[in-house]
Amino acid sequence: MTQKIKIVFIVFGFIFAFLYAIKNNEPKFKDYFEYIDYKYPKPWIETFNIEISRALIKNKVSGCGQLKYREDRERSGEFLVYCTTDGHNYQSYLVWTNIGKVIGPDNTHITISD
Question: Which has the closest alpha carbon to 70: 54, 93, 98?
């Protein structure tokens, strides 16, 4: 083998080992709800957030008289938002304030208590 081929194999070996280590070091979750609690750490925040409100208005989301939200632990500007008009029945949305995008509503509910 030439020296260049050996170097290519070594580099690919390191890349493979690195990617394998990253994949196996990810936290393991027993269910969707545990994953959500990890990705969007507690507590629920109820203070007014103008960026979230602007994104919801821009996307014509209704039924958000009251809202609670959690920010993504790794991505600033990404929020899990729960909206209600009656304080009991919630709709969930993913909101990206930096681009004004909203996905939802979703009916997969997690516990709203802290």
Answer: 93
- Angle at 111 (CA atoms; ends 109, 112), nearest 5 degrees: 100
Give the residues across from 71 on adjacent strands.
Answer: 79
Place of tokens 């070091």: 25
Tokens at residue 78, please? 């990404």
Coil/strand/helix, residue 41: coil
pTM: 0.71
Digit-coded pLDDT (tens) for 8-43: 555 555 565 555 555 555 677 777 788 888 899 999
Per-domain boundaries in the chain: 30-106
d(CA 60, CA 71): 21
Measured distance CA(23)–CA(26) in Å, rounded: 6
What CA–CA distance (Å, rounded) separates 77 from 74?
A: 9
